[in-house]
Amino acid sequence: MVQSQATSVDDWLDGLAAAERPIFEQLRAACRQELANWEERMQWGMPGYGPSGRDNAVSFNAQKRHIAFYAGPTTVERFRERLAGIDCGKGCVRYRNTDRIDFAVLRAMLRDIHTRGGTMCRS
């Protein structure tokens, strides 16, 4: 799934294979807890979270061979040491193995993003 046509995160989750769904539900729960006063919505064909009236600051997606967590370049740089051994791009963390997702680090990243209130870089 690269870009979904789903209109809600629930619909997006319904489109996942049964084996994929639990990890994305866990990721969604972390986002909803750490970004509690932000809107959950579909933007750019993937689930995301952002302040009302602004673009998503956090998004995630199911790719063919990995889970993509779009946190933005500032967050990826700030957490680079804690993400050692994980494939990171400019503003994206790519989890090729779901066992490598450290939810304590992911939640810390979400709190950092929420505190800064930044928008996600689309480049």
UniProtKB/TrEMBL annotation:
Residues 21-111 form the YdhG-like domain. Pfam families: DUF1801. It comes from the Bacteria. InterPro entries: YdhG-like. This is Uncharacterized protein YdhG (YjbR/CyaY superfamily). The lineage of its organism: Bacteria, Pseudomonadati, Pseudomonadota, Alphaproteobacteria, Rhodobacterales.
